[in-house]
Amino acid sequence: MGSTVATGRVAGKVAFITGAARGQGRSHAVKLASEGADIIALDICEDLPFAHSPHATWADMEETVRLVEAAGGRIVARKADVRSREQIDAVLAEGLEAFGKIDVVIANAAAIAYKNVLDITVEEFEATLDVNLHGVFNTVQTPVRHMIERNEGGSIILISSGVAYRATPSPDYSAAKTALITFARALANELGPNRIRVNTIEPGYVLTPALDNDKYGERTAELLGREPFASREEHRAAMWDQFKPRNMLPVGWVEPEAISNAVLWLASDESRYVTAEELKVDAGFADKSA
Amino acid sequence: MGRVEGKVAFITGAARGQGRSHAVRLAEEGASIIAVDICHDVDLIAMPLATREDLEETVREVEAIGGRIVAREADVRDSAQLEAALADGIAAFGPPDIVVTSAGVVPFVPFPTMSEATWRTTIDVNLTGVYRTVKAALPSMVEAGKGGSIVFISSGIVFRGGGLVVDYASSKAGVVGLMRSLALELGPHGIRVNTIFPTNVLTKMLDNEVFGAVVSNAVNEGRPFESREQRVEAMRGMLAARNMIPLGWIEPKDISEGVLFLASDEARYITSESLRIDLGFGGK
Predict the structure, then answer these.
(1) Rounded CA Rg of chain B
(2) What is the pLDDT of residues A233-246, one digit of tens each?
(3) CB–CB of B268 and A258 under 8 A?
(4) How far apart are CA B200 and CA B78, in angstroms?
(5) What is the Cα–Cα distance from B200 to B251, expressed in whole angstroms?
(6) Chain A within 8 Å of B250 (Cβ-Cβ)?
(7) Is residue A290 situated within a structural domain?
(8) Residue B131 annotated as catalytic
(9) pLDDT of res. A5
(10) Is there a single domain that holds both residue A242 and residue A140?
(11) Cβ–Cβ of A192/B269 closer than 8 Å?
């Protein structure tokens, strides 16, 4: 362990982040590390049969490790599946061994089938819930026990979605992400006396590999009823035009860093009395009349 | 480099309490402040409002940390007064990037005996006052073409019923409708509009004998409290039960941290957001 005194808005805190190999999860890890936190990171680092788009790889996670360390942070990064309590707890044990505590939990890992309600099978529906809802339960329960025992409070941040407020053609994803809001409210109420805060963030469109991939390009072409895209750039341009009218601010999507800024605020003591909050970072998506 | 370095913030109700705290916190992070407050009591509002000395204290605190401030007496019920104060501020610092509407009143009157004049006064300050504040600031913001961040201070009371506040609750809920439609209209200009919902904050708005009587009726069988300490302790017990985190109230600076976040470019894609800083009050 180094002897340097960390500085920054979350200096000295330890954050546990799921889905941290790329996209938003990686961005949160790097942002928190740059503000003085140590990171415990996990990601499944393999594709899921039911999920529409390719998931992260171990090489992605190695890049997260490099970026966190370049930002001056320490990190324990492991391959683990949020559907397995055993795997999560093994990573947490290693993280606790290295850093001694957990102050912040960011439940970010997610999957999506991208099928209409008439096409999706019950198995696929359950598979999404397994990752996006049961996986979140799995992610938070052990850290909460640790936080209660340690008795110094904590901040739990669940990444929900703007789909909680507006209809989208993804019944599995919508159901799971919306359930996180009431789950967070119940958890916040139960853990208030322990000064453990539980909040959700509802991102609008964010350009990460979850959208910016060829499989999702096929889905976009299908939804728009047009020919397949000739290139990734053409797909991106079409998505920007497709999403922009749904936002109040004149943008198609926001960067992962915009979500990380909110994560940082909720993780820090600046928000020490914020709990059961639904924080939308969405360019005005949720409140815009269609 | 501060988090709102080089920005100009126009703040109403800035003489004391939350408004003063926002002025100091934003100045600490590099903003220049245009501060207004009515600085006198208002008919039909029993609670004592801020004074000229309070506003001078805000100026002292902002300047003590190296900040710049133009402070003027102005009533949010009077557009001409707001425009005159802003003109002075703009002459000194340029057009506002940030607007914080913190001016507010609460008469604590039971509905059966509330006069229409009282109702109208509360709405005029808390809702139409917000309209006038934005109306006064907007032309210079749009003309500057740099976008901006407007932060309304509503109240947790919007999410739950409370006694003796039908006028206050209605005015604070009205602000939410104003926010959503304004956010939609101003989005193309890159101007964001968000609302903060505080739980109880122990400022002069609650720490006074008018609210003390409300507390006394609720938990002390209407008997007057013997001291401020006794009143504050009774208040703490009564209010803590309503929050998920069982504290009676939070500090003005906790609201200021939310204002700072929404005012800064960290929140550049946050608009039409209802941000509760409330110990879980709104969801309990």
Answers:
(1) 18
(2) 999 999 999 999 99
(3) yes
(4) 28
(5) 9
(6) yes
(7) no
(8) no
(9) 63
(10) no
(11) no
Question: Could you give the C-alpha distances from A66 to A50, A59, A96, A137, B160, in angstroms and in order?
Answer: 30, 11, 21, 29, 47
Are A108 and A231 members of one domain?
no
Residue A4 has pLDDT above 80, yes or no: no
pLDDT range class, residue A64, cuts 50, 70, 90? very high
CA distance A271 to chain B (A): 7
Q: Is the pLDDT of residue A1 over 60?
A: no
Q: What does each of the 284 residues of chain B score in pLDDT, given as a tens digit?
A: 899 999 999 999 999 999 999 999 999 999 999 999 999 999 999 999 999 999 999 999 999 999 999 999 999 999 999 999 999 999 999 999 999 999 999 999 999 999 999 999 999 999 999 999 999 999 999 999 999 999 999 999 999 988 899 999 999 999 999 999 999 999 999 999 999 999 999 999 899 988 998 899 989 899 999 999 999 999 999 999 999 999 999 999 999 999 999 999 999 999 999 999 999 999 99
Reported as a single tens digit per residue, the pLDDT across A162-207 is: 999 998 889 999 999 999 999 999 999 999 999 999 999 999 999 9
Q: Number of structural domains, chain A?
A: 2
Whether A259 is in a domain gets the answer yes
**Same domain as A178, residue A241:** no
Contact: A192, B258; criterion CB under 8 Å: no
Q: Is A187 on the interface with B (CB under 8 A)?
A: no
A175 and A45, same structural domain?
Answer: yes
Return contacts of A72-75, CB within 8 angstroms, 24+ apart: A72/A33, A72/A34, A73/A29, A73/A30, A73/A32, A73/A33, A73/A34, A73/A36, A73/A37, A73/A38, A73/A39, A74/A2, A74/A33, A74/A38, A74/A39, A74/A98, A74/A99, A75/A29, A75/A33, A75/A38, A75/A39, A75/A40, A75/A41
Together in a domain, A216 and A266: no
* Segments of chain B assigned to CATH 3.40.50.720: 8-200+251-283
Contact (CB, 8 A) for B71 and B47: no
Per-residue pLDDT tens over the stretch A32-47: 999 999 999 999 999 9
Residue at token pair 């941000």: B275
DSSP state of A289: -
Give the residue on B whose Cα is nearest the Cα of A196: B245
| CB-based contact A56:A45 (threshold 8 Å) | yes
Domain identity same for A220 and A235: yes
pLDDT single digits (tens) B66-77 = 999 999 999 999
Q: Which CATH number fits domain B8-200+251-283: 3.40.50.720, 3.40.30.10, 3.10.290.10, 3.30.70.360?
A: 3.40.50.720
Domain extent at residue A234: 212-252
Q: What is the ipTM of this complex?
A: 0.90
Residue B260: list chain A partners with CB under 8 A.
270
For residue B199, which residues of chain A lie inside 8 Å, CB to CB? 273
